[in-house]
Sequence to fold (162 residues):
Amino acid sequence: MTRDILIEPMTATGFAPFGDLLALTDTPDKLINQGLCGRWHDLAQLDFSDGRAGISLFRSEARSLPYALEMVERHPAGSQAFVPMSLDPFLVIAAPDAGGRPGMPRAFRTAPGQAINFHRDTWHGVLTPLSAPGLFAVIDRIGGGANLEEHWFDTPYTVRDA
Fold:
């Protein structure tokens, strides 16, 4: 039995059930620094039950397609943003909650310059760069207590280009 997931382009509307798309629009919200810098303001809903926001650097090995999706995870105590430190697209996988388990996953490919923020308690795949260097700034909850739940699929999904 084939369990394929076709990759969709990343759009704010398509990704909205899972989180926020961080991307430039044509016009910034305001100009700052003597008019030399555009500011696109407050693009992500950072949400933590306790603790504080922290910025960490992650370096992940690049993956290739088709990609075997064996596991998703979620963070019940805080949101998690992935901000690439290169202009390379990356793969984003998310799934709705279906009674405490992940529902049917969806896969998105970001465009150069896009970043994402998963809402708190959203099932999602691991950081999945499609090319090196796979360097990301990750903004998430820093604090005590458990904040990771994993779900391993009995049969992996295959993520591939449409």
In short: The first helix runs from residue 12 to 15. The chain has one domain: 4-160.
